[in-house]
Write a structure and sequence with these properties.
By secondary structure, the chain is an alpha+beta fold. The chain contains 13 helices and ten strands. The chain is 61% helix and 16% strand. It has a five-stranded antiparallel sheet. Helix 4 crosses helix 5 (100-133).
Length: 370
């Protein structure tokens, strides 16, 4: 096998002398072009800096990531100084007729700067979109800070890995083995941590779809509680008895969720059972009396219909809406409406059905007192 020898100091000296000789000839032969190109490059440099400052003002005016123009502005404000410099030089290098060696060097540096700058722009736009989706009105949702940190790390690694591969490919390096290695390594990591990634993607679903937020009261799979914390892997819910329930994000989203905090109202239903001794004209008053009782408590009346003739009673189904989504308020409204119904029934002489056993006990107590 033949070993390639490194260039000696004498060879480097000769190459340096050749470079300076070509540069001297280039300057002497194209000095006017060089002066004009330098002026244009300076103008481009300051113009790109003005665009960068404009992007920064857009970001500040949008107060972070509240609007799309502020997201784009934040990405523009992340434009690097080296990219601006090498872009200014690259745009005028053709007009200045630079020597081949210098032109190759400029193209090489511009490729590196452009690829990594594009990765930074894409990263900032992705971050802005994700953070925009976590905004709760005018206030950011800090519940998924840990999840967002992992997302930032994964996006940064992915984008800069692609940028590195593109740069190496432009340098003539065979990146097939590197891409294959990264692919196999990614598959291995994905299989080893598929449970963690499943919960991470579930956290992303919570970010973008927002099925619930911190403080919401939710019900799922026969359980219910108040959401206290949404984490990278799990969500913590405070149960009705004060217990803390911890459930994986993926498993939680597999259930049918009932978000009670997003209710517009609560529907209340119950049954009124009237004795068959109640006269028909009195029974016909029940819907109107119930409507009056419901509206007296500022609730929306639904119905009070005779649903069926039971074995021992006439059964009326009552339905009305409590104006508040709170379950406690609905229970209180149900109690108050029931009391109003009792008052109106007493006034009209309408009697509820009582089981025969209870009536027998009342008669025995009445006979004993007599």
């Amino acid at each position: 096998m033949t070993n390639k020898q490194l260039p000696s100091s004498e060879d480097l000296t000769l190459q340096g002398q050749a470079f300076f000789r070509d540069a001297t000839i280039w300057v002497q032969g194209h000095w006017l072009n060089i002066v004009i190109a330098t002026g244009i490059a300076i103008a481009i440099f300051f113009g790109l800096h003005m665009i960068r400052r404009w992007g920064l003002r857009l970001c500040q005016r949008g107060a972070g990531v509240q609007n799309w123009y502020s997201i784009i502005g934040r990405a523009i404000s992340r434009t690097g100084h080296f990219f601006i410099l090498i872009t200014s030089i690259r745009l005028v290098s053709g007009y200045a007729n630079v020597p081949p060696l210098m032109d190759t060097t400029i193209n090489f540096l511009f490729t590196i700067a452009a690829v990594f700058q594009a990765a930074i722009w894409v990263r900032e736009i992705v971050f802005g979109v994700v953070e925009h989706r976590t905004m709760d009105g005018d206030h950011p949702n800090y519940a998924l800070t840990s999840a967002l940190g992992i997302i930032r790390m994964l996006v940064t690694f992915f984008l800069f890995a692609i940028a590195l591969v593109v740069v190496l490919s432009n340098l003539g390096v065979n990146v097939t083995g590197l891409v294959a290695g990264l692919g196999v390594g990614g598959i291995a990591i994905g299989l080893a941590a598929q449970g963690i990634f499943a919960d991470l993607f579930a956290a992303l679903a919570i970010i973008f779809d927002k099925p619930f937020r911190i403080g919401d009261n939710i019900a799922f799979s026969g359980s219910k509680g108040k959401v206290e914390k949404i984490g990278l892997k799990s969500t913590r819910i405070r149960g009705p008895n004060g217990e803390e329930r911890i459930i994986a994000n993926k498993k939680l989203l597999d259930y049918e969720l009932l978000n009670n905090s997003n209710r517009e109202y609560r529907r209340v239903t119950f049954t009124i059972r009237l004795a068959y001794s109640t006269p028909g004209d009195k029974a016909a008053l029940v819907p109107e009396l119930v409507r009056q009782a419901v509206e007296a408590e500022q609730c929306e009346f639904g119905k009070a219909w005779l649903s069926d003739f039971g074995q021992n009673s006439m059964n009326f189904e009552v339905e009305f809406d409590s104006p508040s989504p709170s379950g406690d308020v609905a229970d209180e409204k149900k109690h108050r409406v029931a009391m109003e119904i009792l008052k109106r029934f007493d006034t009209q002489g309408i009697h509820f059905y009582a089981p025969a056993q209870a009536l027998g006990q009342q008669r025995e107590e009445g006979d004993g007192e007599a």
